[in-house]
Amino acid sequence: MKMTKGFTLVEVLLVVLILAVLASIVIPRIASSAGDAKDAKCDVNIANLRSALERYAVANSGDYPASDADFQSDIVNNSAYFPHGAPVCPYGDAYVFVPATDTITSHSH
Fold it and tell me: What is the pTM assigned to this prediction?
């Protein structure tokens, strides 16, 4: 009887099992890294918006915008503050100015 070279079913199943275990470890880490990158980008965008808000206040005798609509029109969509376009939240949410606390928020992350 002639013996052919190849892998046995047990060897193939063992390799598939090892690959499945490795994938179950690696895939969640990759997904988590993508979320961390989005969070960091969002934090940078909010810092840039806060900087523009402070420059606006200096130029307007220390006054902040009276509403979120004023914030959007006077700062976010103003090419003097953002000549390359307004910051965009990586999660697709809008940045919101809260006049009562003079803070800028986005989604919860």
Answer: 0.70
